[in-house]
Amino acid sequence: MIASNLSKLLKKRRQASGLTQTEVAKKLHVSRQAISNWETGRHLPDLILIDQLANIYGISIDELINDNPPKNIENPVKRTYPLLILAILITSRLTIASSSRSLLIMDGLILLSIGLFNLTKLKKLKLQVALQLISLMTFLICTFKSNILSSFSFQTTTFIVCIILSCQLCSTYHYFKKRSN
Known about the structure:
Blueprint: H1 2-16, H2 21-28, H3 32-40, H4 47-57, H5 61-66, H6 80-95, H7 100-119, H8 125-144, H9 152-180
InterPro entries: Cro/C1-type_HTH, Lambda_DNA-bd_dom_sf
GO molecular function: DNA binding
Transmembrane segments: 102-120, 127-146, 152-176
């Protein structure tokens, strides 16, 4: 039963990719008869050939042998960075900010990080990266522009946030790059 299901799936995947048995056989360096035997259920390909077939058809091994639709891969850390930034800023607001000016600046940065948290839902890489770069620049300015708040604690907080934003930027880029391959 498993062999007949696999043979049907192999034929279905080959046809869906628009390849003939001969073309697949040439790519795998096997005979056309071997492909035919796999698709009729007389024989089954070994694991190495199943991996190569999946690569030829542009699908995962799981999709090839189980007929599972591709799962939407979720970036595991996409919400981690904004939450970490938010936690750092809220903690800093409660411990560092003492004047009304410092409270307003911290509140503005907290609002910016909440906006960044909501931007993780965007699907477009260029827009997401651009907004992350704008946030990074904002925090860098807060870190090194001494007339915004001259508190060492504030500058340390914003510098830590810059490091986290840089990590988020790299993570976002690599995730989208991996997903597009």
